[in-house]
Amino acid sequence: MNLINFPPEFFKSNRERLRKKVSSDIPMVIVANGMIQRGADSSYPFIQDANFWYLTGIDDPDIILVMEEDREYLIVPIREGTRVSFDGQIDQESLAGTCGITDIVNEVGGWKRLDAVLEKTHSLATLAPAPLFIEQYGMYSNPARARFIERVQKHINDLKLVDIRPELANMRMIKQAPEIQAIQAAIDITNKTLRDVLKQPAGTYKYEYQIEADISRGFRYLGAQNHAFEPIVAGGNRACTLHNVANSAALNPDELVVMDVGASVSGYAADITRMYCNGKPTTRQMDVFNAVSECQLYAIDLLKPGSKLKDYENKVMKFLGGKLKELKLITSLKEEEVRTFFPHATSHFLGLNVHDVGDYRQPLQPGTVLTVEPGIYIPSESIGVRIEDDILITDDGNKVLSKNLPSKLKLI
Q1: Does residue 112 sit within a domain?
Q2: How far is CA 231 from CA 209, 261, 317, 324, in A?
Q3: Are residues 14 and 132 in the same domain?
Q4: H/E element holding 167?
Q5: Residues 234, 250: Cα–Cα separation, whole Å
Q6: Is residue 273 domain-shared with residue 296, that is, in the same domain?
Q7: Rounded Cα–Cα distance for residues 241 and 123 (Å)
Q8: Residue 1 within a domain
Q9: In this structure, is residue 402 part of a structural domain?
Q10: Whether 293 and 317 share a structural domain
Q11: CATH, residue 21
Q12: Residue 196 CB partners (closer than 8 Å, separation 6+)
């Protein structure tokens, strides 16, 4: 597997930096994600909590990281009986080698330690859980954080909780050298896979899922862990639904196809979108594509240290609005008109999550990685166009990490 080496010093340094941001008088606890049931006795593939991984590098579920003023330790669950037969025992030596923490205790001893210190401090720094059901996205959250807080509050009734999500978000927003290497590796795999897919002779792909299948094979064959997010392969009108992940429809002649995909390497994501035409594009399709392409170049040129994302987004919206007027889709640059055909932000942070954490109010700093993905969506004409690249903010401007995959419209 194509993994980037993250030495234990990386995680130790992250813990030390976080400790300096939070009062040393308050114990700090970060919990791993738990497994989620898929059906009966099977689970979905395990994905670690990004903050827990950032501080430990550990990919096992249900482990608890405790950081006190003068010591840190891991609490690991006890596995017995059939659970050991199917999943194996937790390798404590491997855990220690990964994160640099040698003090590892089981749940019984670990909770005794934690209770003892909380009875003295009555305060705990941790990550606030998301709601059980997140209305905005229509999905349930991983229950690990909520379960931990419920459990610890049963032990200490008047416990004060300090949410340290902002501190971790600010830390994770600026990528360190091995993180940038991992993102670049994920991008390189994504680029090569997409190039290989589009080398196939015209007419090879009859359905969206056939493209998805070759992308999945390419990612794994080249050493990626898997997809960083559910792949989007959507032709024609289906591309006007931004997160159309069904990937099951037939590809009609001469329709534009959105391919929004990204590999994952060492937990770090790529996020790249390219447009292809299943035949010969019409003049109208080319006009829309060229408008998005010009807007993306304009947006990339704006990104540099000190740029403020709110100002940047407003400038990009107005630029794309001008293109929409040229396409005779709108009559003014009013935001509600522009958003009819460009309903999403241009950029988001990229890292351990494809939509990574960060403070959108802060000026951009060197080391920030973000996407640039303007789009135009015209359901009435069955045209959806999005072009997306991954950008690193440098000391004197920016670097397009995905530049080796041309964005020119490609015929399948």
Answers
A1: yes
A2: 10, 5, 26, 28
A3: yes
A4: helix 165-173
A5: 10
A6: yes
A7: 45
A8: no
A9: yes
A10: yes
A11: 3.40.350.10
A12: 214, 218
- Which 3 state secondary structure label does DSSP give 147? helix
What burial letters (b/e) apply to 149-175, b meaning 16+ CB within 10 Å? beebeeebeebeeeebeebbeebbbbb
Tokens of 390: 């991954």
Q: Which of 176, 172, 242, 160 is nearest to 9 (CA)?
A: 176
Q: What is the spatial distance between Cα 149 and Cα 140, in angstroms, rounded to a whole number? A: 17
Q: Which amino acid makes up residue 398?
A: N
Residue written as token pair 């351990």: 352
Q: Which domain holds residue 25?
A: 8-171
3-state secondary structure of 391: strand
**31 forms bridges with which residues in the sheet?**
64
> 269-285, pLDDT tens digit by residue?
999 999 988 888 999 99
Place of tokens 């017995």: 80
Q: DSSP string covering 280-342, please?
A: ---HHHHHHHHHHHHHHHHHHHH-STT--HHHHHHHHHHHHHHHHHHTTS-SS--HHHHHHH-
Please, is 304 exposed, middle or buried when counting C-beta atoms within 10 Å of its C-beta (0-12, 13-18, 19+)?
middle
Residues 359, 252, single domain; the answer is yes
Return the closest-CA partner of residue 309 out of 349, 252, 343: 349
Hey, what are 221's tokens?
């064959």
Look at residue 410 in the predicted model and tell me its pLDDT.
66
In terms of Cβ atoms closer than 10 Å to its own Cβ (0-12, 13-18, 19+), residue 75 is buried
One domain, residues 165 and 186: no
How does pLDDT run along the chain (412 residues), one tens digit per residue? 768 999 999 999 999 999 999 988 899 999 999 999 999 999 999 999 999 999 999 999 999 999 998 999 999 999 888 887 788 889 999 999 999 999 999 999 999 999 999 999 999 999 999 999 999 999 999 999 999 999 999 888 899 999 999 999 999 999 999 999 999 999 999 999 999 987 887 678 999 999 999 999 999 999 999 999 999 999 999 999 999 999 999 999 889 999 999 999 999 999 999 998 888 899 999 999 999 999 999 999 999 999 999 999 999 999 999 999 999 999 999 999 999 999 999 999 999 999 999 999 999 999 999 999 999 999 999 999 999 999 999 999 999 999 999 988 865 5
Residue from 290, 289, 258 nearest 274 by CA: 258
Structure tokens at 123: 């305060």
Question: CB neighbours of 332 closer than 8 A, spacing ≥ 6?
Answer: 325
Both structure tokens of 199? 């080398």
**Comparing C-alpha atoms, which of 128, 236, 224 is closest to residue 185?**
224
